[in-house]
Amino acid sequence: MPAGLQGLAGRARSSSHRTRSRQEQGSMSGSNRRINGERLWDSLMQMAQIGATPKGGVRRLALSAEDRMGRDRLAALGRAAGYAVRTDAIGNMFLRREGQTPDRKPVLFGSHLDSQPSGGKFDGALGVMAGLEVLRALDEHGIVTEAPVELVNWTDEEGSRFGRGLLGSGVWAGVNGLEETLALRDHAGISVAEALDGIAGDAPAEAFPADSYFELHIEQGPILEAENADIGIVTGAQAQIWWDVTVTGQDAHAGTTPPSVRKDALLCAARIIDLVDRMMRARGEAGRGTVGELHVLPNSRNVIPGEVRFTVEFRHPDDAEIARIAAQFPREAGFIARDCDVSLALEAVLRLASRPFDPSCVALVAEAAARHGYAAREIVSGAGHDAIYVARKMPVAMIFVPCLNGLSHNEAESITKAQAEAGTQVLFDAVLARAGIAG
């Protein structure tokens, strides 16, 4: 693990007493104010009806009709409560509640409403609806914050439609250009620009001055549940590298083409997929390697496949290990393609360094969990989240809650009402401590 992630937890602990004295008024005076768990759960279940699947999950692909419905619902709830709602040129939504000092930098919090093709109710949606509950709870308790606070719904975090995860936050943080992102197309040939028609707003798709960002999310893994922890105090996120892979051989008749002259693209792809698995397992329990998407052409029973397109991703908490993977995978995949007498094209589509989160924001999460008696542990995020890109622009922290059997990106994804409430309470306290209560 890189030094940044190794040392972050200790720095967060050592800075907690300084953070408490600096934020004492906002943090301590807000400790007896509770969010409304029933209202939170009701809002989650209502959002889950949009794009609901027969197996109990959701299908709200980014910028689809269902995503539009979710966005419209969030905007309507925000406007009805009196929050200013704006949308930027890439579709990121912001719901703003003013503070006593409007020119102070706002405290941001949120997540995403888009889902995987067969996703669960809580991946992303928990963070957005919890953020709405934070705003509602502030209203209910009559709290005027010193700084403005803003709920964010980021566009296309999942990357399952246009092939680029963290799409909206990536443009907002300046990682990817707006024009190149608008030109991306889904498998039906629809561009991001076309899908944004009627959604994109007038606000520039770029970072604006903000104090900090907090994101609540389900863990999407088994660690918190296995250790009976209520809260994950996320100290940072691991490194990632993604490729789009195209293997090109030659279509040929399955019954008449002997082995010596075959140029089987699928055979090569299968051997590369096995390479991904072997490289992952060689790195022990910290290794991650996945082929999640596969397209075989012409996809006919009696035709030797002439082209295969698929995705490859690796993840690891150590940047140096990702660098070794970045060198090893193209080299060894190239050897396999040569042996199969086919051509290979690799396009690197994502490279994320490990990202330590801000010690002072992490400390606020830890303090909030301790204040309410929640069992908590520090954890490094194995998944990619919008917070990773936002952290390039401001201090960031994340909060995890357990999910049943660690299952996510699955219609059976599940959390309890109590878990949702605990995570949202920690989010509320952390946001309030950072924004401050007006005197």
TrEMBL record:
EC class name: hydrolase
Organism for this UniProt entry: Granulibacter bethesdensis (strain ATCC BAA-1260 / CGDNIH1)
Domain Peptidase M20 dimerisation as annotated: residue spans: 240-329
Co-factor requirement: Zn(2+)
Name recorded for this polypeptide: N-carbamoyl-L-amino acid hydrolase
Compositionally biased intervals (Polar residues): 24-34
Residues that coordinate or bind Zn(2+) 2: 123, 158, 409
Chain intervals for the UniProt region annotation (Disordered): 1-34
